[in-house]
Amino acid sequence: MANVTTTTSDVFAPTIWSTEVLLAAEDALVAAGLVRRFDSQVRAKGQTLQIPNLANISATSKSADVDVTATANTETAITLNISSHYYAAVKIEDIAAVQSNYDMRSLYAQKIGFGVAEQIDTDVLGLYTGLTNTDVGDYGSDVDDATLLQADQALNIANAPREDRAFILHTYQLTALLAIDKFVRADAVGSVNQPSMIRTGPNSRYMFGEIYGMPVYYTNQVPSTAGTPTQYHNVLIHKDAWALALQQAPRLQAQYRLESLAWLVVVDAIYGLTTTRATFGVEIRS
Fold first, then answer.
1. How do the domains of the chain map onto residue ranges?
2. Which of 31, 53, 170, 192 could lock onto 186 through a cystine, CB 3.0 to 4.6 A?
3. What are the helix (H) ranges across the chain?
4. Could you give the CA distance from residue 28 to residue 219 in angstroms, rounded to a whole number?
5. CA 268 – CA 230 distance, rounded (Å)
6. Which of 229, 230, 231, 233 is nearest to 219 (CA)?
7. Would you write out the chain's pLDDT as a tens digit for each of its 286 residues?
8. Cross-strand partners of 269
9. Element (H, E) at 37
């Protein structure tokens, strides 16, 4: 006897598509917001920004009956070139949009916008190669308390203000930080009912907390070098270590292309960046 089964009646069973779309997972973007910004100074025009450096002037002992001798430093400037222009684009044909159950232009606008923002963050973090402080930590080893203190000391020696410092660590290092007893144990912190030293986070989406009064951010955007072991280039920076000038912040444009019977959707940005104080940051190897 033959029965009607799910196999024989397959043509009657519809495929149901969710009304919600699972967007691709996105990396944490944190670096662009932690550096010195010069957006307003390049917004109108220009391809080069000169940032003057004002050198310190040393005190001189005054001798009786000897006139004061003025100091005349030859000042220098840092050049920031506005030379990066990145875009992300999609072309959505009418037939795809009409037959879709989703607002495809809106969905793809989000993803291409993220693509441009991710490129900016990647470029900012790539500036670690211009830092001149001696690296701390070891490739292939987790960040530990001693390494964090060495990084902090490097910035202290460079006279970097304690305000506006931030750790930017690869996501892999979060577990390592939680495994350091003095940051999480109540008896080490000294108060059972108070936050641990890894505390107050997150006050932004990707702030892990604070250690020694400095915020700790995490992101998979931290540069890495393939090898055995893989080398991760985490950093502790002061805001003045790096500079970013967004001449054109990421903008969204859409144009209907009659010859394609499609909407072209583009996000682009124009910017420049540079190292401004090479001693105000240090690479933390892991």
1. 31-51+78-285
2. 192
3. 39-42, 94-99, 104-125, 145-157, 174-178, 181-184, 186-189
4. 5
5. 32
6. 233
7. 565 545 645 655 555 444 444 444 445 578 888 999 988 888 878 899 888 888 888 888 888 988 888 888 887 888 989 999 999 998 888 888 888 877 888 888 888 888 888 899 999 999 999 999 999 999 999 999 999 999 999 999 999 999 999 999 999 998 898 888 777 655 554 454 454 545 555 556 677 888 888 999 989 999 999 999 999 999 999 999 999 999 988 888 888 889 988 888 888 889 999 999 999 999 999 9
8. 86
9. strand 36-37
pTM (global) more than 0.85? no
> Which amino acid would we find at residue 64?
A
Q: Are strands 165-169 and 214-218 parallel, antiparallel or unpaired?
A: parallel
In whole angstroms, how far apart are CA 127 and each of 108, 123, 267? Answer: 30, 7, 24
- Two tokens at 231? 């080398």
Residues 42-48: contacts with CB within 8 Å, 24+ apart? 42/82, 42/245, 42/246, 42/247, 42/272, 43/247, 43/248, 46/82, 46/247, 47/81, 47/82, 47/83, 48/79, 48/80, 48/81, 48/82
Judged on CB neighbours under 10 Å (0-12, 13-18, 19+), 174 is middle
Return the half-sphere exposure (C-beta side, CA atoms, 13 A cut-off) of residue 272. Answer: 21
| CA dist., res. 92 & res. 83, Å (int) | 30
Report the candidate in 207, 154, 135 with the shortest Cα–Cα distance to residue 177. Answer: 207
Beta pairing, strands 136-137 & 242-257: unpaired
- Tell me the two tokens of residue 60: 């001189």
